[in-house]
Amino acid sequence: MAKRLLFTTALLVPALMQAQTSPKLGKQSFGKTSDGTEVFLYTLHNAKGMEVKITNYGGTIAQIKVPDRNGKFDDVVLGFDNLDGYTQKANTAYFGATIGRYGNRLARGTFTLDGHTYHVPTKDGANSLHGGLKGFDKRTWEAKDVSAKGAPALELHYLSRDGEEGYPGNLNVTVRFSLGEKDDLRIDYMATTDKDTVLNLTNHSYFNLAGAGSDTVLNHKLMLAADRFTPVDSTLIPTGVLQSVAGTPFDFRKSTEIGARINDNNEQLKLGKGYDHNFVLNRSGESLALAAKVEEPKSGRVLEVLTTQPGVQFYTGNFLTGSIHGIGGVYAFRSALCLETQHFPDSPNHPQFPSTVLHPGQQFRSTTIYRFSIE
Ligand code: BGC
Asked: What is the pTM of this model?
């Protein structure tokens, strides 16, 4: 008997190890959109047990499970385990979504390109926010398993037609998510157009490294590689100035607790109801560079953000009110933070900002990596 058990175990162990260690991409139904289209939830696993769930509805990261210093896995992004969560009216937060055609705000929903003034739908008071009324976050993307050499990868494609949400040009957008063995989730964005257009793509994940649904992120420590930020007016549109962070609550060049200065008597913090600002990344050229590092002391989890983009919107979930229930429970005021790598908000109306214009014949490319570790 003992001999037989030994024999069976000897056969089973390698098979189990194989199952645990081979990275793979899973797929399951995630429901149907209002027009009857079935959408899916894809799961990327690496050999170390990290897991990322992405739905092709909105190109949305729904879950990211990473270990803490005791090896306990938790989901560290705000999200829903069903499609209704993402389509419900109360969800105005863009949890985990791919944002486009133009991320963040465009003043009064207007911009001028090649002498023509375009009007895109406004939503956030007088301004346009995150691509209009039905941005890329509310579209169904075509999905393809592009896993290679054992590295799980999902490629999403969307054709945004000429005139959609008021933007010019047929824009072909591809977003590729791949999970590496360094617990790094890499997002590659590519786009081409057949007419001049403006473009600002980002991912809108809300992180809480203590686990989604834990109270605030005010105990998280943050480093931002930015000497300057773009102050805003009362409607959260950049004034156009690139202001030094020195001597202000916006100085995160040395790792600092997010809550340390968030309630300071500072005009910009009052306008944003906390941090909701674009930081100008210190960088030369367009190679991948470290933009931010977040540390959560209790779990020991660390998140590093690397990007080719010139800016990052640091947002402390100031518009979360506790009215949304997701996988992690109630998502309360400041219970998560976003680090949206991007071009600067409202760039088309600020010629001095890095250009967001894409021309026919050009290929837009950008990369962001969210890399997790433990300290
Ligand atoms: C914006 C916030 C907004 C949030 C959710 C962020 O990118 O900067 O002002 O509330 O997205 O839409």
From this structure: 0.93
